[in-house]
Every structure is written in structure tokens, then in C-alpha cells.
Design goal:
mainly alpha, single chain, globular, about 120 residues
């Protein structure tokens, strides 16, 4: 990826992996209707392999751009933001100050953006 990693570029690339049929299937699986587990969540229909690959490409994204992705209505964009955060936190060269900034960012986005177990990257 050339240039500065931005949320806008991430979303543009993510939309290239969108599948309306997968989005429909994911909406049913996550019960996005009123009263459902994922009520109000929206999906592009991008699979997690490409989302994680994009996160690796955009791993140098700054906090403001990550925060923009966390505020996205799309599940896959928020998952990508959390993957970027996990990648940054796991780097040996990441300072403790940066790790604190990442934790603070995570804690500023409770509820819809971060607390869905399907969004939190595993080990």
C-alpha cells in the first residue's frame, strides 16, 4: 500500500471484498434484527481473511484513523481497526506509551464497537 494508511483507504479497499450475499448471511447469523444479539450491526460481507490481510497492510495507521474505523457502522471495519490495534500492541518496538494509548482508545469505545466477542482478535 502506498501513501499514508487512512480509514478512508481501508474502507475503500474493504468494500472491494464486499459480498451482498455474505452480508445477508452474516446479518442473519449475528441476529441483527430488533432484539437480536447483534441488533443494528451492519455488514459489508467481507470475509475475515481479507480483513486481517488489510489490517496487516494498514498496521501503521495512526490513532485518529483507527478511531474513525471503530466508529464505523460496519462490523468488518471495526474488526479491522481492532486487528490493527492488536498488531501495533504486539510489536516489540511499540512503546509502553503507545500501548497505553491503544488501551485508552479501546476503552473509549465500549458497547457496539468493541464488545462483540466476534470482533476481539484472539491470540
Amino acid at each position: 500500500m502506498g501513501g499514508t494508511p487512512t480509514a478512508e483507504r481501508f474502507l475503500e479497499r474493504l468494500r472491494g471484498h464486499a459480498s451482498p450475499s455474505d452480508a445477508e448471511q452474516l446479518a442473519r447469523y449475528f441476529r441483527t434484527g430488533p432484539g437480536g444479539y447483534g441488533w443494528g450491526d451492519r455488514f459489508l460481507g467481507a470475509r475475515m481473511g481479507p480483513v486481517n490481510a488489510l489490517a496487516r497492510e494498514f498496521a501503521a495507521m495512526d490513532l485518529a484513523e483507527i478511531e474513525t474505523l471503530l466508529a464505523s457502522p460496519f462490523h468488518e471495519a471495526r474488526a479491522g481497526a481492532l486487528s490493527v490495534m492488536a498488531l501495533q500492541a504486539a510489536r516489540r518496538r511499540t512503546t509502553e506509551e503507545r500501548r497505553r494509548e491503544l488501551v485508552d482508545l479501546y476503552l473509549r469505545h465500549p458497547g457496539h464497537s468493541c464488545c462483540d466477542r466476534s470482533l476481539v482478535p484472539g491470540p
